[in-house]
Task: inverse folding
């Protein structure tokens, strides 16, 4: 029991006050104040903040009922202050009035000492428990608030992570699909391109030379365009690790090129539609960025096209470059219609478009793939009705040194070449092309036959397709290198897991499909020069 509890005693009879003080002292309480006046007791309450009030009912000036009523008005509902009434008046009427004014208990005069001590003890214990409960509630509420905040934060983080995941998954799925299309489509392109070249070479055997040549050139152009289209589709499935770029790109001149390449769209088309689009250049002095100029140019042209689409009644496009600590920023800003937050979140997704049949929804996902491959970031700021800014952040290397990619197209002496391809058409094409260049060519239509022919003969070079049933190009190459570690091997592939130009243990050079005769000659000279 807390003997330090603060107690206020009010009784207009001095003797009663003394008696109660005496009882409390004997019971061990040491912290009480008393008064013989109701008004004074109310002031005491404000100064002393007691844990318990003992009050007489019948007093002059302010009686017990009045004191209790006033006390209950200033005490907050949550604060449990026990008030015990001291009275000789035990009528039911008096008790009811006291209780309804806010009294908690009664002590009947004359006092039974024991009862006084026990009732006071009870009242103080109830108060102590009440306070304890309130403190616990407060901590509990605080805990719940903190937990809720934590949970809300966790949920937000989770949602963000999920959005990112969904985005990546969509891009990945499209990549797989595009990889497949790229491969199949490429095989037919390889034939078109190769046979056209061959026919051009053999024009003497054809009637009406010039006409045939013109047609053939058109075929080649179309095939070349289609090949570039596939190359673009292939962007999606390129390995997501950033490639190491050898070329340093000057983004300022890249922007100038992109502006002139997209001129038909932003100038002529716009003029024809009766609107004006101004293009501003805001260049800073920036370092070279290691990258692929053609890809970056394409990304930029895509952004310019989108900006033009976003300004159906004309406006301004600003192309800005600036150097930052570890990246060069390339901004494409328009004064167009802007994007809603939902569109801003989703616009990088493949096939997401708000242009209906006029859009493919592939432009920005391409931009994303290209910048991602350059280890860069795409950021988008947009405000409905105000315009959009795309910020491409491309990392640069301090003091980037332009390295020279060896280009050799010198004369190549006649070689003994083994060609392995499971597609008769492509196999034959390679045979014809290489024979035309006076090489001695043998062909095999699968990996196993290729290995047999290799064992039986001597070759300067093996040229093998990658995807073949039973034994694929990689396995064949490995088997050959076991027999002759210095054997030169070129792998031709339409798949994307190798980027052309790379090499693995067993393969000296990877060449991407479709292969033009020029590319093949260059590959031969590179491999044999080493
Ligand atoms: P498409 O242009 O074929 O619709 P994109 O991938 O290039 O596909 O763009 C996707 C969507 O992003 C567009 O349909 C458009 O809603 C939005 N968008 C892209 N660029 C802008 C821009 N500069 N201003 C406003 N919206 C844009
Ligand atoms: Mg677009």
Result:
């Amino acid at each position: 029991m807390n003997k330090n509890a603060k107690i206020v005693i009010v009784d207009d009879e001095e003797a009663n006050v003394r008696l109660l003080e005496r009882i409390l002292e004997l019971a061990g309480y040491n912290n009480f104040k008393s008064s013989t006046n109701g008004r004074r007791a109310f002031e005491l309450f404000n100064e002393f903040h007691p844990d318990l009030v003992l009050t007489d009912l019948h007093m002059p000036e302010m009686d017990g009922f009045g004191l209790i009523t006033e006390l209950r008005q200033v005490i907050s509902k949550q604060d449990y202050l026990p008030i015990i009434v001291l009275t000789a008046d035990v009528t039911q009427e008096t008790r009811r009035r006291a209780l309804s004014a806010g009294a908690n208990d009664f002590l009947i005069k004359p006092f039974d000492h024991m009862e006084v001590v026990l009732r006071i003890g009870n009242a103080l214990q109830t108060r102590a428990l009440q306070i304890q409960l309130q403190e616990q509630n407060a901590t509990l509420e605080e805990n719940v608030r903190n937990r809720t905040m934590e949970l809300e934060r966790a949920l937000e983080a989770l949602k963000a992570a999920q959005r990112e995941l969904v985005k990546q998954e969509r891009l990945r799925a499209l990549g797989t699909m595009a990889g497949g299309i790229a491969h199949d489509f490429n095989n037919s392109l390889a034939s078109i391109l190769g046979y056209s070249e061959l026919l051009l070479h053999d024009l003497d055997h054809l009637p009406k030379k010039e006409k045939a040549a013109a047609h053939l050139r058109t075929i080649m152009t179309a095939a070349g365009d289609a090949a570039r289209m596939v190359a673009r589709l292939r962007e999606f499935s390129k390995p997501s690790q950033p490639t190491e770029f050898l070329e340093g790109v000057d983004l300022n001149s890249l922007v100038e090129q992109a502006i002139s390449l997209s001129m038909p769209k932003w100038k002529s088309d716009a003029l024809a539609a009766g609107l004006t689009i101004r293009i501003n250049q805001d260049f800073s002095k920036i370092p070279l960025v290691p990258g692929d100029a053609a890809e970056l140019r394409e990304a930029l042209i895509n952004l310019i096209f989108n900006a033009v689409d976003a300004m159906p009644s004309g406006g301004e496009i600003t192309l800005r470059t600036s150097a930052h600590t570890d990246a060069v920023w390339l901004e494409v800003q328009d004064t167009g219609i802007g994007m809603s937050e939902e569109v801003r979140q989703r616009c990088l997704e493949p096939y997401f478009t708000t242009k209906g049949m006029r859009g493919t929804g592939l432009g920005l996902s391409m931009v994303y793939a290209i910048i991602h491959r350059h280890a860069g970031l795409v950021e988008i700021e947009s405000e409905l009705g105000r315009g959009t800014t795309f910020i491409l952040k491309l990392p640069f290397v301090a003091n980037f040194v332009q390295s020279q990619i060896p280009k050799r197209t010198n004369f190549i002496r006649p070689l003994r070449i083994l060609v392995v391809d499971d597609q008769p058409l492509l196999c034959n094409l390679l045979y014809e092309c290489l024979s035309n260049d006076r090489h001695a060519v043998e062909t095999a239509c699968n990996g196993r036959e290729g290995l047999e022919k290799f064992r039986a003969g001597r070759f300067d070079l093996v040229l093998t397709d990658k995807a073949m049933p039973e034994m694929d190009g990689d396995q064949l190459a490995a088997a050959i290198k076991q027999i002759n570690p210095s054997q030169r091997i070129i792998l031709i592939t339409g798949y994307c897991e190798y980027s052309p130009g790379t090499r693995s243990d067993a393969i000296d050079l990877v060449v991407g499909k479709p292969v033009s005769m020029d590319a093949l000659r260059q590959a031969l000279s590179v491999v044999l020069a080493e």
In short: The pocket of adenosine-5'-diphosphate (ligand 1) is lined by residues 306-307, 310, 334, 336-339, 343, 347, 352-355, 359-365, 388 (CB under 6 Å).
